[in-house]
Structures are given as structure tokens and as C-alpha cells.
Amino acid sequence: MQVDRTLSWRGRRVAWSCAGSGPAVVLCHGTPWSSALWAPFAEALSRDHTVYLWDMPGYGASSMDPEHPVDLGLQGELLADLLGIWGLERPHLVAHDYGGAVSLRAHLLHGAPLASLCLVDVVALSPWGSDFFRLVREHADVFTRLPAPVHRGVVESYIAGASHRGLRQEDLDALTAPWLTTAGQAAFYRQIAQADERFTDDLEPRLGDLAVPVQVVWGREDAWIPLDRAHRLVRAIPGAGLSVVDDAGHLIQLDAPVMLATELGRWLASVR
């Protein structure tokens, strides 16, 4: 399943796709990923659901215009509008990494109606962001001008650190490819430079207002967003459940695909 359709939103090109039949499920990626990370799961879920994949502007096959902001606030507005464009009244949302904050903002701040939320190793509570994030924010223009081979090494090392089990070369190549063009290099550092905890800080007081079923899924060995965030998130959201996946890091889709697919299938069956 690939994002083979496009639509225009505020001058941005948004790549997306839809497959299957049944209750609607929208899969939201994070950073520095794209919908490709969710594609195998989307294909499996499309047997019983109508599954929507999309790339946030600045990522994957969507536009990477340097003049367009790519912050979490903007992406949350876009997601809320996308659900309306697609005619989805109460879809199920499954979100990873940044996609968590984007989904929560779409629902809590922009009124997007949902049937349920499944939050997988998400950015939702401060603090988040690494020393590398802070360094890029301070020197984004310098990183944008790195020689291509040096930039490639930076991106590969950064992405590899999200896996607990280690990545196959073909997976590493697929995850780094969107960032290795001239436009991709600039976009990679631009989205880090625009990362700001204020976009999750204004969410945290509203988490107690969530009135839809919520399931939190986390890799026990997540070095990017440690497991304590999952426990904090569950305490903050009324009635939220928690599944911890052993021997998996932040890239749980690649570290433990069978366990993640099982968790997603079980969750969606329970809220159908």
C-alpha cells in the first residue's frame, strides 16, 4: 500500500491513499518517518477496515516547500481538515511518535470527532527531544549545508538509534531515502528546528478531557521516548489501557512487527 493520491491544502501537496472496506482507520506517522513505516500494517488491516495512509507535509511523498511551516500545530490543523475532506465522521486513529501529538491536537483542540485512539510510542508529554534536536535547532542552517556524504551518515546514525534490535540494511535505506535529496536534506533539519514542546504543553492539561477509548502501546526498550512517558500518559487519560511490548524500541514497527500487529488487531476488534 503506497500513498498514490494527492490533494492540496493551503498550498501544500498532501500524499495519501485509501484501501479496504469497513470501519475507517487513519494511520499517522511521526518523525523522521513517513507513511511507509505503516504500509505493511495498513495492508493487513485493510482486510477488515477502510485504511487511510498519509504523509505530513515536509515528509515522504508530500511537498517539502521551505516556505511552509511543518510544526505540530500546523499538522494538527491539517489532520482535522483531512478527516472532513475524506468524509470521515468518527474514524479510529492509530498514531506513532509525532503523530500522537498531531492526533491529540486534531481531536482536543480542533474538534475532530474520533471513535478511538491508539497511541504507539508517541510524542505527547514533555520533556521530549534529544541533545541532537537541541543542537540542530541552534544551528539548522549549518546542518542544511553539510556535504551529502556527511549528512547521510548523520541521518543513518540517527535513525538506527531508534531501533532496539538493529535495522536491516534495506529498512535503513528505505527510511533514510526521503532525506537524501537536496530538498530532503533541508526538510530533515527544518522539521527538527521547528520542534517545540509548547505544542505538547498546551495538550497536557486537556488529556483528562478525552472521552474516547484510548490504548497506549510502547516498546519497553524505547530509548527515544522512555517507558515512563507511557505510564504518565495512561495516568493522565481516563480509562486508558497500556500494552508494553518486550524487546522493542521506538521503531516498534520494525523491532516487533508481529506483536504490534497483534496489539492493533486486538484493539480495533475491541472498539469496533
UniProtKB/TrEMBL annotation:
It holds the Pfam family Abhydrolase_6. It comes from the Bacteria. GO terms for molecular function: hydrolase activity. Keywords: Hydrolase. The keyword Metal-binding does not apply. Gene3D superfamilies: alpha/beta hydrolase. Residues 25-259 form the AB hydrolase-1 domain. The keyword Oxidoreductase does not apply. InterPro entries: AB_hydrolase_1, AB_hydrolase_fold. This is Alpha/beta hydrolase.
